[in-house]
User: Fold this.
Amino acid sequence: MLKQRLISALILSIGIVPVLFLLPNNYLIIFILLLTCVSLQEFLALRFSTLTTILFVCFSLVLFYFSSFPGLNKVFIGFSALTYLGLFFLIISFPVSKLFLQRNFIWLTSGVAIHLGFFASLYFLISQDELVLKHFGMDITNRTTLLIIVLISVMMDSFAFFGGKKFGKSKLLQNVSPNKTIEGFLIAMTLTPTIILVTTSHLVEKNFYQFIILILISSFVSVIGDAVISLFKRVVEVKDASNLIPGHGGLLDRIDSHLATIPIFIFMLLILS
Assistant:
C-alpha cells in the first residue's frame, strides 16, 4: 500500500507542475473547476443518492460561476474560512458532534462551502493581474505563489505521515483520525514552515513577520483540512471517498488539505494586505 501510495504521489506531482505553469488561465480555471466538481461529488455521494448528488453539483456550478464576480469572490472565500472555523470545533468535540453532522443541511452546506471557497480562491489567484504577494515585496508570479501554497500542504502531509510512522506514539485526533500523531504533527509544523521560509525569505522585502504568520497559519490549517474530511468520513464510517487514485482513495482524499490551505492562505492575505 505504501509503495502504491508513493508511486501515485510521484505521478501526481510530476503532472501537476506543467499544468500549473503551462496551461493558459482559462484552461487552468476549467481544469480546477473539473477537479472541484469531482471532489464535491465524492463528498456529497458519501451522504446522498446519485441523483441528489448530481443535482447539488449542478446547483453548485451556478455558485462557482458567481465566483468570477470580484465582490462575491471574496465573500465566498470568507464564508469558507468561517466554515472551517466552525468545523474545527466540531472536530475537537467529536463524537458528541456526530448527530449534528449527520443532518443533511449541515452536510450539504459544509461540502458546498469548502469547495466553493477552494474554487473562488484559486480563481482569484489565477485571474489577478497584480502580484498577490506584493504586500511582502515579493516579485514572483501568482502561479509560483500557488505552487508554494500547494507545497505547504504536500510537505505537511508528508512530514506528518513519515514522522508519525517513525516517531509517533501519542494520538493527535484519536476520535477523528487515529493515524495522526502529535509527534508527526510537531515534526511537520517545524520542518514545513522552516523550509518554506528559508527558501523564500530572500524574496521578502517587507512585512517579514506577517509573512511568517501567514506561513504558520497556512501550515496549521493544512492539518485541519485533512481532519475535516476525515471527520465526515468517520460519520459515515468509510475509509476513502472513492477508489479513483490507487493508494490514496478518491480525489477528495488527495486534496483534502488543499481545500483548506488555499482559501485560508488567500483569506489571510486579503486581511493582511
Remarks:
- Strands lie at 171-173, 177-181.
